[in-house]
């Protein structure tokens, strides 16, 4: 089916379309109902179907004769460890760990916190939870104890699964003291803490609550998968940057599995036995959808990478992975490639690792600026494909569909057209649809397709207040952008990234595009600062490439001239500060909300998702130099 026919059917005959797609996975009881809906915002998918996500990802693959195929490649340059885990071996590990959990009293519907680094045991724990119907919540290893405690309390976790430490290129982070503090702070006390001891730093186990991972499974018997309703929750994932009461996005089992099967096969264009690499972490939605569940449900091989794009050991690390494992396609945040380019702008470190198997590279999570696109495209000589989605959706909203015979061509600056099931509209502040080419609020018409979250854990009103209240009948994405006459979507950034300069509403994203195009710039951010005369003015924060020789004064003159030429004097872009790094989340997103507060001289809370809090001190010192 061509893209247009498939997309139109997904919108006009959505129930029939998704029931047909549901046949692509193996159900314990196949659904007869596609969409069940009582109102615009009250609906469910495949409500009479029964299945198990772990069965689809592991057992089913073994039954289909892929037992000896590789499920996971584990590559850890920070420890010098490499492993190949077959589907048969993964089944053994998961079923035994699930048996140990059941013996410890964990049952269907119970909740489990997983606080782990990027190691295979993390996936084992996730899949084991799915196997017995326990609801897992993965918390990025190294999160502050207070934030972990909030999550323990929010889901009333019966079990915490952790490791003794996480390893960065320049430090070792002890996890167990953070877990101990979190359990002490939490009002709800988990029954047990399971600890995987790592040789580089072993944890002290205390009392009856703490159990060594291998002691936990020593006498365990493997267990089979339980049958779950399609609408039963699979996991809870807390969105980054939360403050106060956490916001846990809930994902179901049935819709999630059907959506990931479509996404992996038809969007990413991969099938069984292909090798796929999502260069992310299990703490983020990419890790859930496209490191663990999606690739395994489709019988592919997925790469677990415990390292960084640079410094583990150098900026050729990603190229080694692509070549060594014969990767067919990958997904990565643009910020990782900007870091590589900033260290090795000539791309010389790619030459020893030229990959002959790579078909294309998908990017998401941050805006793909044109200079990074051009550099990467020229270096890798494969299509570089921008696409857009969110933690809440769990799979792409707009993207080229590389699994179709005739994917829509890419357009620079666009994340392509909507994928099946997403009816995207650009609405103005009054809720009226804008004309093509006119920016507004990106919204999705209800009902949303399978796999998209429709609730916040333990807070029934919060989902509606956050996403549905402003535009009745629509989901508000929080992003701004526009569509052209052919339906291609252009993301201009978060709605908050529009500043008002003397009455002119200007996009800081557009300015960042101009700034990043300068040959000396490795990374940049433009934020609005308070100005007594103009209301707001833009400020540029830039990171230079390692081999640049331009002075800060000359760079400022050239950047100001470039913005003036392409946007106009009305932008009032006059201030540029050179910094060593930009504050980012561990998934690579620039913390623009924090930068805005610093630029405005407002107080702010250091986000728990920040990669390196010390960089904020440097940013504050720079901005104090403003005249």
Descriptive terms for the model:
alpha/beta; 18 helices; 2 domains; globular; 627 residues; 29 strands; Rossmann fold; GMP Synthetase, Chain A, domain 3; five-stranded parallel β-sheet
Report what the structure shows.
- 31% of the residues lie in helices and 23% in strands.
- The protein is of the alpha/beta class and 627 residues long.
- The strands form 9 sheets. It has a 7-stranded mixed β-sheet with strand order 5-4-17-16-18-19-20, sandwiched between helices. A 5-stranded parallel β-sheet has the order 7-6-8-11-12, with helices on both faces. It has a 4-stranded antiparallel β-sheet with strand order 21-22-23-24.
- A hairpin with a 3-residue loop joins strand 27 (521-531) and strand 28.
- The model has no long low-confidence stretch (mean pLDDT 93).
Count, helices? 18
Strand order of the largest sheet: 5-4-17-16-18-19-20
CATH superfamily of the largest domain: ANL, N-terminal domain
- At the third CATH level, what is the topology name of the largest domain? Rossmann fold
> What percent of residues are in strands?
15-25%
The largest β sheet comes out as: 7 strands, mixed
Tell me the domain tally.
Answer: 2
What is the CA-based Rg, rounded? 24 Å
Helix content estimate = 25-40%
CATH class of the largest domain: Alpha Beta
Question: Which structural class is indicated by helix and strand composition?
Answer: alpha/beta
Mean pLDDT: 93
Q: Low-confidence segments, ≥5 residues, pLDDT <50?
A: none
- Which term fits the overall shape? globular
CATH architectural grouping of the largest domain:
3-Layer(aba) Sandwich
Number of strands: 29
Distance between the termini: 60 Å
């Amino acid at each position: 089916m061509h893209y247009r026919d498939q997309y139109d059917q997904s919108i006009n005959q959505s129930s029939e379309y998704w029931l047909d797609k549901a046949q692509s996975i193996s159900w314990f009881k196949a659904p007869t109902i596609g969409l069940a809906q009582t109102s615009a915002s009250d609906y469910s998918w495949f409500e009479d179907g029964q299945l198990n996500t772990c069965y689809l990802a592991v057992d089913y693959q073994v039954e289909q004769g892929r037992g000896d195929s590789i499920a996971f490649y584990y590559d850890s340059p920070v420890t010098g460890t490499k492993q190949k885990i077959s589907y048969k071996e993964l089944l053994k590990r998961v079923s035994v760990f699930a048996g140990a959990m059941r013996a410890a009293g964990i049952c269907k519907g119970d909740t489990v916190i997983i606080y782990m680094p990027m190691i295979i045991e993390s996936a084992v724990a996730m899949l084991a939870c799915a196997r017995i119907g326990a609801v897992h919540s993965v918390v990025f290893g190294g999160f502050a104890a207070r934030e972990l405690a909030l999550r323990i309390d929010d889901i009333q976790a019966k079990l915490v699964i952790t490791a003794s430490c996480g390893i960065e290129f320049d430090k070792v982070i002890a996890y167990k003291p953070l877990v101990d503090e979190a359990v002490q702070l939490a009002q709800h006390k988990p029954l047990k803490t399971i600890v995987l001891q790592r040789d580089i730093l072993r944890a002290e186990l205390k009392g009856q609550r703490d159990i060594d991972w291998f002691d936990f499974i020593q006498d365990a018997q493997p267990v089979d998968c339980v049958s779950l309703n399609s609408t039963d929750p699979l996991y809870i994932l807390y969105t980054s940057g939360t403050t106060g009461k956490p916001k846990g996005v809930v994902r179901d089992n049935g819709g999630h599995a059907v959506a990931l099967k479509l996404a992996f096969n038809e969007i990413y264009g991969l099938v069984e036995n292909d090798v796929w690499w999502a260069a992310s972490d299990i703490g983020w939605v990419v890790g859930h959808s496209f490191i663990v569940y999606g690739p395994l449900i489709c019988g592919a091989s997925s790469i677990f990478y415990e390292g960084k794009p640079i410094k583990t050991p150098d900026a050729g690390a990603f190229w080694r992975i692509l070549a060594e494992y014969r990767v067919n396609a990958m997904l990565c945040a643009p910020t990782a490639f900007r870091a590589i380019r900033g260290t090795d702008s000539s791309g010389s470190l790619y030459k020893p690792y030229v990959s002959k198997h790579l078909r294309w590279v998908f990017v998401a999570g941050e805006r793909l600026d044109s200079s990074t696109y051009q550099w990467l495209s020229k270096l890798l000589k494969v299509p570089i494909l921008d696409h857009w989605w969110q933690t809440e959706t769990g799979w792409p909203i707009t993207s080229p569909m590389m699994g179709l015979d005739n994917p829509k061509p890419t357009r620079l600056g666009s994340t392509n057209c909507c994928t099946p099931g997403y009816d995207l509209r650009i609405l103005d502040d009054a809720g009226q649809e804008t004309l093509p080419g006119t920016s507004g609020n990106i919204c999705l018409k209800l009902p949303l397709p399978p796999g998209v979250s429709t609730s916040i854990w333990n807070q029934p009103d919060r989902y509606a207040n956050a996403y549905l209240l402003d535009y009745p009948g629509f989901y508000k994405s929080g992003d701004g952008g526009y569509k052209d006459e052919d339906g291609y979507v252009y993301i201009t950034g978060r709605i908050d990234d529009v500043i008002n300069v003397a009455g002119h509403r200007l996009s800081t994203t557009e300015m960042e595009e101009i700034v990043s195009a300068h040959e000396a710039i490795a990374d940049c951010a433009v934020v609005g600062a308070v100005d007594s005369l103009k209301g707001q003015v833009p400020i540029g924060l830039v990171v230079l490439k390692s081999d640049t020789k331009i002075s800060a004064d000359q760079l400022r003159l050239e950047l100001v001239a470039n913005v003036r030429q392409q946007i106009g004097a009305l932008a009032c872009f006059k201030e540029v500060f050179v910094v060593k790094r930009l504050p980012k989340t561990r998934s690579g997103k620039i913390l623009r909300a924090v930068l805005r507060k610093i630029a405005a001289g407002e107080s702010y809370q250091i986000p728990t998702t920040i990669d390196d809090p010390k960089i904020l001190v440097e940013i504050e010192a720079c901005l104090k130099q403003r005249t």
